[in-house]
Amino acid sequence: MFHLGWFVGNGYGLNSWGSDWAGSFDRSWTDASNYIQLARSLERASFDYMIFEDGLMIPNAYEGSMRAYLKHALEGPRNDPTALVAVLSQHTSRIGLIPTLSTSFYPPFMAARMLATLDHLTHGRAGGNLVTSSSHRAAENFGLDQHFEHDLRYRMAGEWVELVEALLASWEPDAVVFDEASNTYADHTKVHEIDFEGEFYRSRGPLNTPPGPQGRPVICQAGGSPAGRDFAAQHADTIIAVPLGIDGMREYRDDISERMRRFGRDPRDCKVMFMVNPVIGETDDDAEEEYSRRWAMRDSEAYLESSLATMSYFSGIDFSQFDLDEPMPDLAGQVNGHQSSMTRYAKDGADGRTLRQLVIGHDTVESLRLVGSPATVAAQMTEAMEHVGGDGYLFTSAGFDRRHIAAVTDGLVPQLKKAGAVRSAYEHEHFRDNLLAF
Ligand SMILES: Cc1cc2nc3c(=O)[nH]c(=O)nc-3n(C[C@H](O)[C@H](O)[C@H](O)COP(=O)(O)O)c2cc1C
C-alpha cells in the first residue's frame, strides 16, 4: 500500500487566478468554506494529509518589480495557513493538517507553541512543513539586508528544530496529574527548563503549553539539495519531492534511505511523497485530449510571463534579462534560492533548447506523467510505486478546481482502494500513527 497527500499550492492564497473552473473561488478565496470542502473530500478518500504551501513576501525578482506577481497573483496574496488549519481542525477528524513554517523567520519558541497548540486543536493531527525560505525579499521583511546563504540556512534549521523538539519535550508525558486530592494540576518536578545554548539560538524553557496528543507533531520537509536532504534525513517524518520520472523517484528514495541510515534512523520512519498532477478523463482518449489541450494553452504570453516570474522567484535571478530564443544560460553557482528546481531546468536545457521552448515544455510540478481514465491512472500509479519501492503520492493542481478534486477523490481513489493500493479507512486517531502504519 502507499500513502496519499494533497499539496495546496500557494497555500491559503489566491491559487486560481486566470484558471478555468475556479467558480467563485477567485473572489472568495479567503473564505474557509472552500478549504473545509476540500479537506472533507480528502478525508472521505482517506488521505494521510493536506499541506499548505506558504511564503512571506510579495516577490520582485522579475524585472525588479512586483508588477507580474500582483498582475497574475503569483506567490501571493497569501494568508497565514496556521490559522486556517485551526479552523479545519473543527471540521475534520482524521486527516493530517500541515501548515508551512519558515525556520529562518519563525522564532523557535513561538513555533513550538504554535505546533503544540495545533496538536491540541486537531486532537493529534498537526504537522509542520519546515522550510528555510529562499528569497532576500522575505529576509527584508524581517529586518535583514539579505537572506542567509543556502547551506547556512539549513545549518540554522538543524539547530532550530533541535530547540523546538527540546521545548516540545520540556514537559514529561505524565507531568499533568489533575490530582484533586492534593489540588494539584501539574507536577513541577516533571516540567523542565531546557537552558538551550546553540550557535544561533538560546532559550530557557519550558514551553508554557503542555504537549499535545502526538508530543512532537509530524515534521515535513521539502528541499532537495544535499543540505536539504540531510536536514530531512535527520528530522523529517515525511518528505515532499518532485524528482523527474520513475528512476528519479527511486534514486531520491534510495538516497534518503542511505542518509537516514547514516544518521541512525530506520528509513521506514520517513515517507517520501512524490508530487503528481494527473489528468483524469471518462476514458483514456478523453484524458489524452484534455492533456494535449492543456499543453497547447501554454503557448501564450500570460503563461510565459507567469513562468518566467516564477523561475525568477525560485532562483533569485531576473529572467527578464535573457533572450527567450537563445539556450538557457549557465547559472551554476549563482542560485541562492531553490537549487533543486533550477537543477531540473538545467538538466532539461542541456540539449540546447531555447529558453522559450524550455519554459513552455517544462513541468516543475510532476514527478510522473499520469493521464487516463480513473482505472488507467490507478494502474499507472501502482506500477510506478512498485518500481520506486515506497511511499506515496502528493497530488497538486494548478488552481482550485472542484471538478479535478472530485475526479481524484471520487473517481481515482475508489479505484486505488478497490485494488488494495491505498488504505480503505483510517486505522488510527493520530496523524503520525496513520503515516507510519505501512
Ligand atoms: C514540493 C515542494 C514544496 C515546497 N513548499 C515550499 C513552501 O511552502 N514554502 C517555501 O518557502 N518553500 C517551499 N519549497 C522550497 C523548499 O523548502 C526549499 O526552500 C527549496 O526547495 C530550496 O531548497 P533546496 O535548495 O534544498 O531544494 C518547496 C519545495 C518543494 C520541492
Strand order of the largest sheet: 1-2-3-4-9-10-11-14
Q: What is the mean pLDDT?
A: 93
Which CATH architecture of the largest domain? Answer: Alpha-Beta Barrel
Order of helices and strands: EHHEHHEHEHHEEEEEHEHEEHHHHEHEHH
Instruction: Determine the strand fraction and express it as a percent band.
Output: 5-15%
The radius of gyration computed from the alpha-carbon positions, rounded to a whole number of angstroms, is 22 Å
Q: Number of DSSP helices?
A: 16
- Report the biggest beta sheet as strand number plus sense, adding barrel if it closes: 8 strands, parallel, barrel
What's the CATH topology name of the largest domain?
A: TIM Barrel
CATH class of the largest domain: Alpha Beta
Query: Residue ranges: pLDDT <50 for 5 or more in a row?
Result: none
Count of discrete structural domains? 2
Helix content: 40-55%
* Count of strand segments: 14
Describe how the helices and strands are arranged:
Blueprint: E1 3-8, H1 25-28, H2 32-44, E2 49-52, H3 67-71, H4 81-88, E3 96-102, H5 108-121, E4 127-131, H6 136-140, H7 150-168, E5 176-179, E6 184-186, E7 196-197, E8 202-203, E9 218-221, H8 226-235, E10 238-241, H9 245-262, E11 271-276, E12 279-280, H10 284-296, H11 301-315, H12 339-348, H13 355-361, E13 371-372, H14 374-388, E14 392-395, H15 402-418, H16 431-435
Parallel strand pairs: 1-2, 1-14, 2-3, 3-4, 4-9, 9-10, 10-11, 11-14, 12-13
Antiparallel strand pairs: 5-6, 7-8
Bound molecules: flavin mononucleotide (FMN).
